[in-house]
Design goal:
about 200 residues, globular
Length: about 200
């Protein structure tokens, strides 16, 4: 079996378990194939918050009505409702987002990052990147790219993953990290599975 290059994430199959997408070397650069929902995290969070608040209002009204008769019944309504209503409500709210899942490809070349979103492809030179969020795991996995007037936001954690793959991303490879640093960006936020690169040096004229 060939040995993966140092620093590159390799997919190790586990029987009965989906694996995270992995970068694959090609002549054009390292390629990562994944599925995502083209939407902003803020839009999803606002939609979920409105749904939860609406459900909470209904539960509160029911609890107030029952509290006049039996305070224990009112508390029971709140607890049971939170378990039986709010959680399925959140799942129902995210379902329309999952329906918008499209296949995506990120290609990290020497000079640019190309992102294919369905049948649309954007190519952004490394020295044009102003802000790049790359989060690999959990339901918050996503890619957010800003380069001048161009903005791309791909929610990976809520998308329907590709067959046999988890709803996650592989970490940026060492070549992309070096290219971002050389282009004048720095990792302003770095946590396990979450890194954000921001421009700290003006673009070359």
């Amino acid at each position: 079996m060939p040995t993966p290059r140092p620093g590159r994430t390799a997919a190790v199959p586990h029987e009965g378990r989906d694996v995270a997408p992995a970068w694959q070397p090609t002549p054009a650069g390292d390629v990562l194939r994944f599925a995502a929902v083209p939407a902003r995290l803020r839009t999803l969070a606002l939609t979920v918050a409105v749904a939860v608040l609406a459900g909470g209002a209904v539960l509160t009204a029911a609890a107030v009505l029952l509290a006049g008769r039996d305070s224990a019944a009112g508390r029971l309504v709140v607890v049971a409702g939170a378990l039986l209503l709010c959680l399925p409500l959140v799942a129902a709210v995210t379902l329309p987002f999952r329906w918008r899942t499209v296949p995506c490809t990120a290609t990290a070349g020497e000079d640019a990052l190309a992102v294919a979103i369905g049948d649309r492809t954007l190519r952004v030179a490394w020295d044009e990147v102003d802000d790049l969020v790359w989060r690999t795991g959990t339901e918050y996995a996503r890619v957010v790219l800003r380069a001048g007037a161009t903005r791309v936001s791909l929610l990976v954690g809520v998308a329907r993953p590709l067959p046999g793959r988890a709803a996650a991303l592989a970490p940026l490879g060492p070549g992309a990290v070096r290219a971002l640093a050389a282009a004048g960006t720095a990792a302003g936020t770095r946590r396990p599975g979450h890194v954000r690169y921001r421009r700290v040096r003006p673009r070359a004229a």
